Amino acid sequence: PPPPPPPPPxxxxxxxxxxxxxxxxxxxxxSDLAWRLYTRLDAAGSASLAKPEYTAFLHAVGSxxxxxxxxxxxxxxxxxxAAGEDDPLCEWQLCVLLQAAANAGRFDxxxxxxxxxxxxxxxxxxxxxxKVARFYVAACARASEPERALQAFxxxxxxxxASPGRGQARPALTALMNAFARRGDLATLAALQxxxxxxxxxxxxxxVNAMLxxxxxxxxxxxxxxxxxxxxxxGGPLPDSVTVKLLLDACERGG
Length: 255
Description:
Order of helices and strands: HHHHHHHHHHHHHH
Helix content: 55-70%
Number of strands: 0
Oligomer: single chain
Largest sheet: none
């Protein structure tokens, strides 16, 4: 018998409803439910997904910070590429691909996506999206690749530190500092702090926490106390529970 005809394309309303549903699943960290929905659609022969739905599935499945669960997004990515729905100039798709690869521990895939995005942007005569650059910096930081993170930050984001609003530079700076903090590289952390201060970036809690994390890693109690004092100065950032725990840990390790 002849093969069954392919399923008809989903209506625009159905596509919008599915994408909205998947975004809600991502917001609530329901990666497993999103994965089950994807596999059921696939088993039913619903091969009519387009770029927005593939991207929404990638986000819902790959945004979870548990490597074995996030790794399932690799199957969705492969299906998307096979369907020709990948787009190296789509900002949000690139961001979720970078996030999923980083969460799954597949840094080589994240680096390949970043390099492909850089090449596509150059061919189009446009700069790489700062948001994509920020997600790549975060992927480098998660993979303990602070030098690569710093290179990407310098190339795409450093000039934004002094601009109004600072766009993606502030969260990228936080990720970058945390990467060097986990290595205990207080010298680089101090240089990044000075650079941010010179650019007029107000001191914020996550920057203090990054410095305290670095102090904890090397057991420098005196420097940890000095960094914490910044939170007590007039107009200083408010410490949170992470701030206090890192301070106590640094003091305990430093004796």
